[in-house]
Amino acid sequence: MAKKRKAEGRCYNGANRNKKMKKQEDDDRNRNPSMVVDTYIPDLPDPAVHQILSLLSPKLAARSSIVSKQWARIWDSLPVLVFDEDEKICTDSHRRKLFMNFIRNCLKRRKRDKCDLDKFGLRMRYNGGASTMNQCLSFAIERNVKELDICIIRRKMFGKLSRLCYLSSTVFSSAKSLTILKLEGVNLKESIHPMRLLSLKTMSLESVEFNSTSDFLHLVYGCPSIENLLVTSSTLGSPVDPKVHSISSLSLKSLEFTQCRRPVFKIEAMNIESLKLDGWADDIASCQKITSLDLFCTYLPCHYFNGLESRFPLLESLTLHKCWWEDAEHMNIFSQHLKRFVFFENYMQLKVSTNLPNLLQATFVFWDAVPSYLRLTYLGEFLKQFDCSRKTSLQVTDAKGIIFPEEIRNTWSPPFPTLKHLEVEISYTTAVNDYVLIDSLHWMAPSLEFLSIKQNSLVILSERT
């Protein structure tokens, strides 16, 4: 019996040792992806392996480097290097440690290789301290990186996001080759030395905080060749700042502010072509070359569009997304060149006059499930001003939102008497009879040649008459 217990003890200890050895091997493999066995996979020509790795996503390419030493060597020389921490393992400290060790080992191996980088990406959680991130930035900038994508994921603690990672603009001072910069989840601190990114063409800032509007403007002015600037969910200063700050650029072609905390800007960019703005109405009088204007939740006076054609003679696309009007008087939209008009559930009592002879497409999005009689009359009068469109799209939550009762049909003229092409999208299934809906649509547009109806993304009708 004693011998049996001793044998069982040896088996148990041996199993424990095997588990420990396997765990150690797994950890070593994660720390050093070049620790692989070459016996099973024959060497392919280096150009073939390079082509295969180039076609894979950066994450898959990194994982594929364990195939053989040859693959690991070639992966080390690829001009694209992206590290992406999986958010699903945020509570796994062991996996977190492996990820950080993986980054350090990759950078250590690549120190011997001074080849330039086309792209460097880092997506990781922030737990305090920025040594690894600064090490990554220095590594990428030393290798003349062209595209830099840094995303810092903030943890949720007691229902609130953890503090932002502070990043000094000094780290970019020597990034002479940078053409694309994407930052997310950082607080960008202005240094005493102004940053100069002479080659930068595109900059995207998401959930980025600046200590002042001046810090943000210094960043923009440090990019004399910038063409595309996208700012989302960021803090650029106080929205009640009485001072109007100017954004001046001769190179800027596209500017977007979405869901930002910011002051009013005077945008002096005479070559800009596309504008997407929210909040208070910015001064865009000097932007006479814009072809696309998108206003989101913007507070506008009705006279904002007066003289639209003379102020923006090249404007082809206009989007008004849930805007607020200073008064409910009359708005004029006159333009010979406007080809696309999009209107999201704005103030329906607004009276509109239009002259849009070249309008190709008009899109209207309304979310009132069951509009009142009065609202339907306003809707009919509003839509009537866009009968000039060659193609119209109506997007509603419920089909009842566009069913005009007999009382209105017998009293009012149809809103689209000459419209030929109508597309309707309904978000939810309703109890409305299809024939009732189709009958209402044919009253709205008696000259239809094409009618399409989608419900829950499924086509329930597509007909030519």
How does this structure look, described?
This protein is α/β, with parallel strands linked by helices and 465 residues long. It has a domain at 116-272. The chain contains 11 helices and 26 strands. The chain has helices spanning 2-31, 46-55, 58-64, 69-76, 93-110, 131-142, 213-221, 308-311, 373-384, 406-411, 434-444; strands spanning 80-84, 119-125, 147-153, 156-157, 160-161, 165-168, 180-184, 186-189, 202-206, 209-210, 228-232, 245-248, 254-258, 265-268, 274-280, 292-300, 317-321, 324-325, 330-334, 340-344, 351-355, 361-366, 391-396, 421-426, 450-455, 458-464. The strands form 5 sheets. The chain has a 17-stranded mixed β-sheet that branches. It has a 3-stranded parallel β-sheet with strand order 6-8-10. α6 links the parallel β2 (119-125) and β3. α2 (46-55) packs across α4. The chain starts with a helix and ends with a strand. This is F-box domain-containing protein. It comes from Rubus argutus. Residues 41-81 form the F-box domain.
What key phrases describe this protein's structure?
465 residues; alpha/beta; three-stranded parallel sheet; 28% strand; F-box domain-containing protein
SS element count, helices: 11
CA radius of gyration: 30 Å
- Average pLDDT: 84
The beta-strand count equals 26
Strand content: 25-35%
* Oligomer status: single chain
Region (Disordered): 1-34
InterPro entries: F-box-like_dom_sf, F-box_dom, F-box_SCFL_complex_component, LRR_dom_sf
Pfam family, one: F-box
Protein name: F-box domain-containing protein
